[in-house]
Please model this.
Amino acid sequence: MQPFKLKKYAFRIRTRVGMVVDNLMIPGETEEEAGRKLRQIYRDCQILNCVCHHGSVRTPVAGNFEDVVSLIAR
Model:
């Protein structure tokens, strides 16, 4: 199993009622995808800023008992 990069985007938005919300972390492969997910939650929001956080390397979930034991033993 290959590790994969987790990419998150930190948004600063203004909601439709005028409240500013800072540091909304939304996962996505691209900024556009993360922005689309954000707009599903906060309809009619205005995106003020977006910063990409590449995150850390994650290993996939172990598939068998031996892999789970080796993860616990680390």
Remarks:
- The first helix runs from residue 31 to 41.
